[in-house]
Amino acid sequence: MNVILLGPPGAGKGTQSERMADGYDLVPISTGDIFRANLSKGTPLGLEAKKYMDAGELVPNEVTERIVTDRLKADDVTGGFILDGFPRNLHQAEALDAYLEGKGKGMDLVINIEVDPEELVKRLTGRRMCRDCQGITHVLTDPSAAEGVCGECGGELYQRDDDNEATVRNRLEVYRTETEPLIEYYRPRGKIADIDGAQHPDYVFEQIRDAVENAEAGK
Fold it and tell me: What residues act catalytically?
């Protein structure tokens, strides 16, 4: 089964991608991981992407699409995969469709995790990272985090630059304008499953499990 995970920053896509990978033997593919792997290996695609990143510019669609489709050519994804962070816009969705159709394949399910924007602001601005162990915690769920101390190692906690409120709200707006239109792009195909992401992660996964089983039954 080939799956796309849609949802705004902070919706919990990474957590659910890991659970799906374990539960259904699917390969999780994160664009962030792909970029980091290409950069660390110094691949031609990675070096091309680095030029834009070093200049503070967005990596063009064409470069991102080539990096993702190159990853989809690997043998380990033949049994199915989960895309997290791609496609981000209509151009990338159309490129993905064209690539998969050329391979005689397609997307089986698009999971759309929905969370109220103000709840996402609370989630993201409350995150703290430890300078020592790199662990992530939250000021609303961990008393030690509110005091700036890591509960695991006692290290200093700090707020990442991309977790301040202005940046978070900008990231959410970018998602609304660029990525959210993909929901209606895929909906006419009957592949969309809307998931309430405001619930506990266990309940979110139960909803996803139901969606996967329905998609498998309809194949």
Answer: 13, 88, 127, 160, 171
